[in-house]
Amino acid sequence: MLPLVALVGRPNVGKSTLFNALTRSRDALVHDQPGVTRDRNYGVCRLDEERHFVVVDTGGIAGDEEGLAGATARQARAAAEEADLVLFVVDGREGPSALDDDILRWLRKAARPTVLVINKIDGIDEEAARSEFARYGFEDVLTIAASHRQGVDDLVDEALARL
Ligand code: GDP
Ligand code: MG
């Protein structure tokens, strides 16, 4: 079985963009509208024959538990719970939101190895973005700009080191 890495985060933080950068595909639907990705979407991140893992792009977690948004949130949780490593993706431009706090709470319950990934650091102060999320208490924090592939190779190295 290939190791499984789950991308988890609220809508619009760049999970699908990161998924595409990791799998070098256009499989995941990237859109300006929050909540475009409804289902789990699997792909393979392959460096070479020995080093590869499966990535699952989960739908945005929309907060309310009713209807489609609720189903999507449950899918995301299921994906996180079966993952060998969770990449908790947040938006470095917007900083922590109430929804990020909620996700953090259930991620702690899921108790899977988790790395905080601060995305969208292109053109912003990386240290300021890091300090905004310092209260989340993660030992492992990566800063990336998925749409520019910035930091994505380091992220792959970090993921592989932890799998
Ligand atoms: P998802 O809902 O978490 O899957 O987010 P998407 O991947 O669909 O991205 C949401 C929006 O953020 C899109 O408009 C992306 O182009 C944009 N985006 C993603 N990554 C970055 C980044 O590194 N920097 C910037 N500036 N925008 C990004
Ligand atoms: Mg998406």
Automatic annotation (TrEMBL):
<comment type="subunit">
    <text>Associates with the 50S ribosomal subunit.</text>
</comment>
<feature type="binding site">
    <location>
        <begin position="119"/>
        <end position="122"/>
    </location>
    <ligand>
        <name>GTP 1</name>
    </ligand>
</feature>
<comment type="similarity">
    <text>Belongs to the TRAFAC class TrmE-Era-EngA-EngB-Septin-like GTPase superfamily. EngA (Der) GTPase family.</text>
</comment>
<feature type="binding site">
    <location>
        <begin position="57"/>
        <end position="61"/>
    </location>
    <ligand>
        <name>GTP 1</name>
    </ligand>
</feature>
<protein>
    <recommendedName>
        <fullName>GTPase Der</fullName>
    </recommendedName>
</protein>
<comment type="function">
    <text>GTPase that plays an essential role in the late steps of ribosome biogenesis.</text>
</comment>
<feature type="binding site">
    <location>
        <begin position="9"/>
        <end position="16"/>
    </location>
    <ligand>
        <name>GTP 1</name>
    </ligand>
</feature>
<feature type="domain" description="EngA-type G">
    <location>
        <begin position="3"/>
        <end position="163"/>
    </location>
</feature>
